C-alpha cells in the first residue's frame, strides 16, 4: 500500500520508558510484532541508555536481539552517546535516534551536556553510523517549551535543525516534549522548518498533556508535515521532564487520517488490538481519545 503520511511508532521505546515498573522482554517483543503486523513500517524498539538512568530499557540488547524479521520494517533505537552506539553495534539496527534539546536547561538535566557539546558529539558519531549503513534521526526535545525554563525560541529550533542536517542527519525529529504547543505555533514552526530543510526531512513528535496532540497533528499536516512519531495506546512521556504526559496515540492519529482520506498504511483493527495489549500491561491510563472498549469498525480507508 502506498501512504500519504508516515507513522513512526515509538511506543516500545518512548511509550514504555515512562512506566513505573519494568515490562518483561517477551511482552515488548510481542507488542513489536503486533505493531509490525498492523502495518507500521518504522518502529523505535529500544533505547541504549544507562540502565540506572532508564531502568525500563535495561533489556535493550535482548529486545534488539529478538526482533522479528519482517520484510520492509525498519527498526530504530535511541542512542545517547558513543557508548550506546557501541552497545547496539552487534544487533540489527536500521536507524538511530539521537536526542538533544532546544533548551539548555533541559539538555543539562537530561544528558548533562550543553547544546554545542551534544552537537559536537553527534558530528563525531555520524561517520560511524554511515559506515554501518544506518539512517540518523536527530531529535530536538522541548522544541516548544521546557519544564525548567519555559518557552523556547523557534529560532533556536530552526538553527539546530540546520546544523544537524549540515552535520549529516537524514531526518529531524521535532518534539513537543511537555505538550505545551498549540496549533498556530505548530503550524508556524512547521512552515519554517519545511522552508529550511524540506518536508521529507521532518518528523513531528507530539505529546497530549493538554489534549491537543490531534489538533496539533492536523495543524502540522496542513503546514506540510508528512511524518509523525506516535505511541501505541497514547502511552509514554519523558522521565526527565516533570509533567510530561503521554504521546499522541497511534490509533487516534491513524483513525483521523484515514477518515480524512489520507493513507497511513496501517490496519486500524490490528492497531486497536496492539493498543489493547499495550494497555493491558501498562500501569498508566492510556490517553488515546478512541476508547478501546468501543467498536472496532474500520474507518473508511482509502488505498
Give the averaged pLDDT, no decimals: 90
- Widest beta sheet: strand line-up: 1-2-3-4-5-8-9-10
Total number of helical segments?
11
Secondary-structure element order, as H and E?
Answer: EHHEHEHEHHEEEHEHEHEHH
Q: If you compute it from the alpha carbons, what radius of gyration comes out, rounded to the nearest whole angstrom?
A: 17 Å
- By DSSP, the count of extended strands is 10
Main pleated sheet:
8 strands, parallel, barrel
Separation of the first and last Cα atoms: 7 Å
Shape: globular
Low-confidence region ranges: 291-295
Helix content: 25-40%
How much of the sequence is in beta strands? 15-25%
Return the structural class.
Answer: alpha/beta
Written account of the structure:
The chain has 303 residues and is an alpha/beta fold. It contains eleven helices and ten strands. The protein has helices spanning 11-15, 25-37, 60-65, 82-88, 104-111, 115-131, 154-167, 183-197, 213-223, 250-259, 268-281; strands spanning 6-9, 42-47, 74-78, 95-101, 135-141, 145-146, 150-151, 171-176, 202-206, 227-230. The chain has an eight-stranded parallel β-barrel, surrounded by seven helices. Helix 3 (60-65) links the parallel strand 2 and strand 3 (74-78). Helix 7 (154-167) packs parallel to helix 8 (183-197). It starts with 5 loop residues before the first strand and ends in a 22-residue tail after the last helix. Residues 291-295 have low confidence and may be disordered.
Amino acid at each position: 500500500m502506498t501512504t500519504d503520511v508516515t507513522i513512526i511508532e515509538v511506543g516500545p521505546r518512548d511509550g514504555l520508558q515512562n512506566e513505573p515498573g519494568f515490562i518483561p522482554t517477551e511482552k515488548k517483543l510481542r507488542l513489536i510484532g503486533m505493531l509490525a503486523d498492523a502495518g507500521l513500517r518504522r518502529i523505535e524498539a529500544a533505547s541504549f541508555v544507562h540502565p540506572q538512568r532508564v531502568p525500563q530499557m535495561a533489556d535493550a540488547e535482548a529486545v534488539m536481539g529478538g526482533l522479528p524479521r519482517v520484510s520492509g520494517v525498519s527498526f530504530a533505537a535511541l542512542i545517547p552517546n558513543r557508548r550506546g552506539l557501541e552497545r547496539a553495534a552487534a544487533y540489527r539496527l536500521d536507524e538511530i535516534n539521537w536526542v538533544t534539546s532546544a533548551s539548555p536547561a533541559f539538555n543539562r538535566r537530561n544528558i548533562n551536556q550543553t547544546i554545542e557539546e551534544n552537537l559536537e558529539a553527534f558530528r563525531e558519531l555520524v561517520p560511524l553510523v554511515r559506515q554501518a549503513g544506518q539512517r540518523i534521526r536527530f531529535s530536538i526535545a522541548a522544541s516548544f517549551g521546557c519544564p525548567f525554563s519555559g518557552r523556547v525560541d523557534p529560532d533556536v529550533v530552526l538553527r539546530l535543525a540546520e546544523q544537524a542536517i549540515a552535520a549529516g542527519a537524514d531526518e529531524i525529529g521535532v518534539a513537543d516534549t511537555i505538550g505545551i504547543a498549540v496549533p498556530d505555533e505548530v503550524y508556524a514552526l512547521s512552515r519554517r522548518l519545511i522552508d529550511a530543510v524540506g518536508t521529507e526531512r521532518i518528523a513531528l513528535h507530539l505529546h497530549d498533556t493538554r489534549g491537543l496532540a490531534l489538533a496539533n497533528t492536523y495543524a502540522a499536516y496542513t503546514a506540510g508535515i508528512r511524518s509523525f512519531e506516535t505511541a501505541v495506546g497514547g502511552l509514554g512521556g519523558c522521565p526527565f521532564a516533570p509533567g510530561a504526559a503521554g504521546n499522541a496515540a497511534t490509533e487516534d492519529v491513524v483513525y483521523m487520517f484515514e477518515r480524512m482520506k489520507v493513507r497511513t498504511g496501517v490496519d486500524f483493527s490490528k492497531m486497536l488490538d496492539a493498543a489493547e495489549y499495550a494497555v493491558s500491561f501498562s500501569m498508566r491510563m492510556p490517553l488515546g481519545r478512541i476508547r478501546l472498549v468501543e467498536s472496532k469498525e474500520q474507518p473508511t480507508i482509502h488505498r
